[in-house]
Specification:
Blueprint (H helix, E strand, L loop, with lengths): L2 E7 L6 H6 L6 E6 L6 H7 L3 E4 L6 H9 L6 E6 L2 E3 L1 H13 L4 E10 L2 E2 L8 E8 L4 E2 L8 E2 L5 E3 L4 E6 L2 H21 L6 H18 L6 H30 L1
Parallel strand pairs: 1-2, 1-4, 2-3, 6-11, 6-12
Antiparallel strand pairs: 4-8, 5-12, 6-7, 6-8, 9-10
Helix pairs in contact: 5-7, 6-7
């Protein structure tokens, strides 16, 4: 097999079909289900994907590495269930794996927030390393915001965007904010790191200034302001969660 697509998913019934349809050109499509309580696994199987179960959660990095163990293709494209490969990106991927061996490819990701494409705020361009030869890279073991780990390999940037439908509603955003903040704080706490309330407040202020002014979030209008304000809340939330864990240690 030439190309395996690996996807980790949990309760992604609203996304998994569209994600799998967008990569129906792949030789193999693998879905690692993290113990869904909806019909994610059944839908993925009906779409022709190979479905594996891994309900014991150890973080995004661990889950993605586990998904990699099921890939048999020479090349691997790692996706999230809320991402879509466009026909233009498909052609670029197929050309890349045909003509550029031993290379890691970064793909520009474009995010849709509550129905609007965000072009600034630090969200665009958002290059993510996702396409690589099987066995030449793995993901870091971070609970959240995992990164692809590789050594001594050239990196090339593709030009066509990977569409990211991460936040269809504000409810999705708030849910992810809490999940990611708690996971990040726990990882930092277990590593022995501490913080202060002052750090949490300053991080929020810095995040807003950077995303709204430096990264031109104001050009995205009212929705750009909302994104930048929420990024400030996310920055405050993760440090506040760590602060609370630090305080509980002394109670």
């Amino acid at each position: 097999m030439n190309l395996s697509v690996v996807i980790i998913a949990k309760n992604e019934a609203s996304n998994i079909e569209d994600c799998l349809k967008s990569v129906d050109f792949a030789d193999e499509r693998i879905v690692l289900d993290g113990g869904s309580t909806d019909n994610t696994a059944e839908l993925a199987s009906s779409m022709g994907a190979k479905v594996f179960n891994a309900s014991q959660w150890h973080g995004f990095g661990h889950q993605k590495n586990l998904a990699l163990t099921h890939a048999s293709g020479q090349w691997v494209l790692s996706l999230d269930a809320d991402e879509r490969v466009t026909p233009a990106l498909q052609l670029e991927i197929l050309d890349a794996i045909q003509h550029s061996p031993n290379t890691v490819f970064e793909i520009p990701r474009q995010t849709n927030f509550c129905g609007k494409w965000i072009h600034h705020c630090g969200w665009t361009p958002d290059f993510v390393a996702r396409l690589f030869q099987n066995g030449q890279a793995r993901f870091s073991l971070d609970q959240v915001h995992e990164k692809l780990v590789y050594s001594s390999l050239p990196v090339q940037k593709l030009t066509q965007p990977l569409l990211h439908f991460s936040y269809p509603t504000t409810a999705h955003y708030w849910k992810k904010l809490q999940t990611y903040s708690d996971a990040w704080a726990l990882q930092q706490y277990q590593a022995g790191r501490t913080t202060t309330m002052t750090r949490a407040v300053l991080s929020a202020m810095t995040a807003f200034i950077k995303s709204y002014f430096v990264r031109l979030g104001f050009l995205d209008g009212a929705m750009g302001f909302a994104v930048c304000f929420m990024q400030a809340q996310a920055a405050f939330g993760k440090y506040f969660s760590l602060y609370c864990l630090n305080q509980s240690k002394h109670d």
